[in-house]
Amino acid sequence: ALPISEILKYNKTLKKINLADNNFGEEASAALSEALKLNTNLKELNVAGNQIGKEGISVLSEAFTLMKVL
Length: 70
Description:
This protein is mainly α and about 70 residues long. Helices cover about 50% and strands about 10% of the residues. Helix 2 packs parallel to helix 3. It is globular and about 30 Å long.
């Protein structure tokens, strides 16, 4: 999830992404969260089946509320 998080920071066209079952955890969730805060185009994100944990859920939730798009 770390390289994809860099791509998502500058995404201008991608509207949805499926990251389900990619075995990423809290560290990757934090990187993804930071990228999502800068992304204004993404409307759908699937992270089911990952090892996100409580901290990962927390940081992603924070990003979702700041996005106002997803």
